[in-house]
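Study this:
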Amino acid sequence: MTHFDERAKDWDSDPKKVKRARVVAEAIRKAIPLSTDMTALEYGCGTGLLSFALQADLGQITLADTSQGMLDVLGEKIAAAGVTNMHPVKLDLATDTLPASRFDLTYSLMTLHHIADVNDMLGKFHALLKPNGYLLVADLDKEDGTFHTDGTTDVHLGFESGELQQMVEAAGFGEVRFSTAYEIKKKIGETEKSFPVFLMSARKK
């Protein structure tokens, strides 16, 4: 059981996570033109909150995660909702062979800071996109290490936009844009802290 397997059953019971996915979905709609002709890959999908928020705006969506627990909950949700354009798959792009499919759009929410080799992952996102395909990443701005209060280690402490833009451009993307999509508020000790979540959009050259 991984950390995320253990948390999967209760993941959607946190209204803040549900709201965050809904707000980020709206930011994605504003950032790029979505269409039901587009195929999409969500990487690090968890229980699919973001893809459910985008489901009516897109064509076929592949939802990939490394946590079987999350995918089990996601499968139950898809069956209960009766949607036909969402397809879960267990996939670790850090170690697994790349899928044969190519997508018009790849997106992730609060996933990139959990990935050890960001440059490698950006290269794989690039490879999985069709020409002129879009990459959208929603993740933490650079933070001081206080965001993860649950003992999670082996994470990046958010990202500085200029540094991430250089990495994204080096992976073969252009039209890189950043906006603030959401703010996560957390009680750290006696203080409430705000952690901005950026949305970065880029396009495969």
Remarks:
- The longest strand covers residues 173-188.
- The chain has a mean pLDDT of 94.
- The first helix runs from residue 3 to 7.
- The domain at 3-204 is CATH 3.40.50.150 (Rossmann fold).
